[in-house]
């Protein structure tokens, strides 16, 4: 994974622009880009870098006979074509090869920089096909914790405010990473049950948050990723919170039925933009 000094937000251009009729509406994509590029980091927050990916064929239009300008094609209207071309020229939108699946580029870039994806797609096909990115296998739990769902009110872009809390409170070491592709994949401690420390396969989790027991029973309810509270703590308290090689925090999580995300122990000695760190408590 690449070194991270900013919060990377990757926009799934095809998902954002194509909402109802299947045609690309570039003003909606532009609204999403404008929203994230206009975010100003507060004290102690990481700056947001926004990049959108869109299929190259959207710009593959031919001039109308007798005209030097683009014409309408199956993808979009002429005005939308001009707006998309402008976004591409500014490097706000990156075009993906026509023969390739743009999802691969979207997910790959987000995994590389431990970023977030703006999409209403849960990438279930890629999860079920066990796609790997940077040597890591994509899991449903990673998708749930790294995707920002959204809607539009007219042309106004509205992301899920709960998902946006992860962006505003982003810490490089405080988001779940993918399991290595070469090893059996068990869920992270985000999916510990309240009654057991036993790990379970991320793909064995139902939509209702219950672990599937193939023997016909269900174990305890998993920790809900959507239930999260953020606390600011002084940097000097980090060694104490990690205490006893992490056992102190593990025991507390087991007792309370929560999962707590802490920056790594080395963060206590590293230079930072702030003397305050974010503690994320799930459950």
TrEMBL record:
Residues 8-161 form the RNase NYN domain. The keyword ATP-binding does not apply. Keywords: RNA-binding. InterPro entries: KH_dom_type_1_sf, RNase_Zc3h12_NYN. Residues 177-199 have a biased composition (Low complexity). Residues 174-201 are annotated as: Disordered. One of its GO terms (molecular function) is RNA binding. Coiled coil: none annotated. The keyword RNA-binding applies. This is RNase NYN domain-containing protein.
């Amino acid at each position: 994974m690449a070194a991270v000094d900013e919060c990377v937000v990757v926009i799934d251009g095809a998902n954002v622009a194509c909402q109802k009729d299947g045609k690309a509406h570039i003003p909606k994509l532009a609204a999403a880009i404008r929203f994230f590029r206009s975010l100003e980091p507060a004290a102690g927050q990481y700056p947001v870098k926004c990049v959108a990916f869109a299929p190259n064929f959207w710009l593959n239009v031919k001039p109308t006979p007798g005209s030097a300008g683009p014409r309408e094609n199956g993808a979009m209207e002429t005005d939308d074509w001009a707006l998309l071309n402008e976004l591409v020229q500014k490097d706000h939108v990156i075009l993906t090869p026509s023969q390739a699946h743009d999802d691969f580029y979207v997910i790959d870039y987000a995994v590389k920089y431990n970023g977030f994806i703006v999409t209403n797609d849960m990438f279930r096909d890629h999860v079920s096909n066990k796609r790997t990115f940077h040597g890591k296998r994509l899991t449903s739990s990673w998708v749930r914790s790294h995707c920002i769902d959204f809607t539009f009110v007219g042309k106004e872009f509205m992301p899920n405010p709960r998902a946006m809390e992860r962006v505003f409170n982003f810490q490089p070491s405080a988001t779940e990473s993918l399991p290595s592709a070469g090893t059996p994949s068990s869920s992270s401690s985000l999916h510990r049950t309240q009654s057991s420390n036993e790990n379970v396969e991320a793909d064995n989790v139902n939509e209702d948050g219950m672990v599937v027991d193939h023997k016909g029973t269900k174990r305890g309810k998993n920790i809900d990723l959507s239930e999260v509270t953020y606390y600011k703590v002084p940097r000097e308290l980090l060694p104490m919170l990690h205490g006893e090689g992490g056992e102190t925090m593990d025991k507390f999580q087991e007792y309370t039925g929560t999962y707590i995300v802490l920056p790594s122990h080395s963060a206590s000695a590293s230079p930072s933009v702030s003397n305050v760190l974010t503690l994320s408590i799930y459950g």
